[in-house]
Amino acid sequence: MACTLSFPGFAFKNLRRRRLRTLLTLCGIGLAVGAFVGLVGFSSSFEQEWQRMYSSSGTDIAVIHGTFLNTSVDESATAKLRALPDVALAEPAIFNLMSLTPDVNALAYGWRSDAFELDSLRIVEGRRFQDGQREVILGDLLAQDLKKGVGDALEIEGTPFTVTGIYHGASGLEANALVMPLDELQQLSSLQGKVSTIDVRLRPAPAGELPQQYAQHAAAEIEAALPGLRAVPAEERANNNQFVRLAKTSAWGTSTLALVIGIFGIANTMVMSVLERTREIGTLRALGWKRGRVLALIEFEACALGLGGGILGIGLGWCGLRVLEALPQTASFVTASIGWALLAKALGAAVLAGLLAGALPAWRAGQLSPVDSLRNE
Q1: What is the pTM of this model?
Q2: Which of 145, 136, 140, 115 is nearest to 125 (CA)?
Q3: Which of 38, 92, 98, 255 could bridge to 317 as Cys pair (CB 3.0-4.6 Å)?
Q4: Domain-by-domain residue ranges, the chain?
Q5: Contacts of 132 (CB under 8 A, 6+ apart)
Q6: pLDDT digits 0-9 by tens, 31-40
Q7: CA-CA-CA-CA torsion sign (362, 363, 368, 370)
Q8: What is the pLDDT of residues 101-136, one digit of tens each?
C-alpha cells in the first residue's frame, strides 16, 4: 500500500533511521543548551539580587569614580552633594569582599551609624553598631553560617570586632553580608578619607516631571558640581557592578563554548547522514527535487535536532537551577524560575546552532549530481 510522506515526515523518518546517533546528538546539544540556561539563569538571578539590594536601601543615585570597587572617591565630596538643591540625603560608603574564615568570604559594608541605608535592615537581635567602635552587625544568613551571635567576637583581617546585632535584609546578598562603621573599615583597609561611593537620596520630583527624567537631571547636576565623578542612577547600578559583569561574562563565555561543541555534534551527525544517503539523495534529484529543496531538507533535519536538544536543554538547565536553589551556599540568591526572555534565547540559540551545523552538509548534499549519486554503491 502506497504511503505519502510530507516534507517534515520525510525529514523525521531520516532522523529515526539512526536512533542512537540522533539520541546522542540530542543529548550533546541538550547539555550545551542546559549549560546556557543554567549559567545565564544564575547570572540573571545574581543581577536581580543586586537590583533588589540597591532599591531596598532607598538610594536613587550612586556617585562613584570609575567603578563601584574603586575606593578613590574623596569623602569630603559628601558635603558638596548635600548642598545641592535636588539632594535630600548623601551618605559615604565602602563595600568590599573580605575573608572572615578560611572557608567564608562575605561582602563588608562600611556605613555611618546614622546612614539612611541602615533603615532598610531589620534588626532581629541586638542593636546597631556605633561609630568609632570595633563593632559589626551580621546578616542572619551569614551569622548562621559563621555560628555567631550577639556579643561574640569576630576577627576581620586580623582585627577583633564584636557582633552587636543580627539583621534581616531585603535580599540574599544583604543577608550574607556584614556592616561595620565606615571609619573602622577605612582604618582596616588603610583608606582614611576615601570611600567607594556616595549614596544619594533625591528630594521628591517636582510636579509634572517624570521620576526618570528628574533622576537624569539630578545626575547631570551632580556631575557638573563634582567633575571627574560619575552619578549612576539606581536602575543602572546592578548592570555596572563588577561582580554582576563578571558573572555574566563567565556565563556567556562558558555557554558559547558549550554551544560550539554542540554545533560540531550536529554537524557530524548531518555529514554522516549525507554520506550514508547518497543514493537516496540522487533518487530524489532524479525525481525532480531541486538543489534548494535538498538543501532545505538537510537544514530542516539539523534544525529539528537543534530544537529537540533545546527543549531537552531547558529541562536540564531548570533542574540545575533547582539544585542551586536547594544548596545552602547559593539558595539565598538563586531562583529556579526561567523567564520567557531566557526561554526564547535558549531555543533561538539551539535552532541557530542547528542552522550553522547543517549548512556545510546541506551544501554538500545540494552539490551531489543525480547520475553520480545513483552510481554510488
Answers
A1: 0.69
A2: 140
A3: 38
A4: 7-50+244-375, 66-228
A5: 181, 183, 184
A6: 888 888 888 8
A7: positive
A8: 877 888 899 999 999 989 889 999 999 999 999 999
